[in-house]
Amino acid sequence: MANIAYLLTYADDDDAASQRSVIEEHAGRKNLRIDNYITVEVPSTRRERTLRVKELFSQVNRWDVVVIADLACMGNDISDIITIVGGLSEKGIRFVAARQDIDLNGPGDGSSKTATALFDTLASVEKDLTSRRIKGALAQKKKEGVVLGRPKGSISPSKLDSRKELIIEYLSKGVSKTSLARILETSPTNLASYLRTRKIVVAKKEKPARETRKDAGQGAAPVEKESGKSDMPPAAPPQNATPVQFQETVEVLLCRHCGKNMHDPRTTTCAGGYIDYPNGESHPRVPYPADETGRCPRCGVAPGGFHHDDCYIERCPRCGERLVSCACRTSNAVDGLSLGA
Q1: What domain range is 49 assigned to?
Q2: How far is 289 from 310, CA to CA, in rounded Å?
Q3: Is residue 228 part of a domain?
């Protein structure tokens, strides 16, 4: 059992010395021994302060004595203070507030029960008084002709406002709202609300009209038809032709690992991370070599960036071979390599 005095101070108010003086004076009158003084800086905001004090007192052991200088140091709301003090009493912890001369000895003490009941009554009265003050002030403002509440038609700021152009761009390229919400790290509901309140309606780019015709001895085959051009389908590109990679395009292909559009020239790398193997090993992913002169021909990451999901160019960090085709991630091969080592 230990008698611990807590000096609860704020970042902009250094009154630890005055709190210690109050506690020492009270301890001298009540013949109370203080084993240790602990100075704790608590946040100034109500919610954070209450959570910090609860976390602090949750570490106190049963039968210990908690001493503070003033109940006001624990918060500005009596209901929060009562909740904290009640939790200490239920755990069998003696609680002492020096300035108010309060000494609660736990759930078995009669005076503690009386004080706790009084605190509950005061908390209820404080809530009623606060509610009446607010309602009275609002009624007076309404009587004076002040329009209460948010002006009709006003829109609150959103964290998506700074990314409005990006949202319109992705929607115009056909990205689904669910995928776009994942890219923006928000919920689909929040994105839908943003589009509705900002009246953002983006028409998707229409695909060329397609017709079907029957060739001799063949079934129906789709043929693109554009005005001023031949009805014959375009010739297939040579098999050995090198495609032009990652220019401006309307195509969208999202990586399952990082959620980015791999066809977007602004996407230079995927997320990093580790490769896990069945034998319990984990190795950092191997990036695309930084000395390459161009982007990865498969997934388009820039030199030095990490490959996108299932890129066959990515190397295995364990054996150096292609990650999609090496045998390191099969349990039998890994077990055999481990035993051989």
Answers
A1: 3-125
A2: 17
A3: no
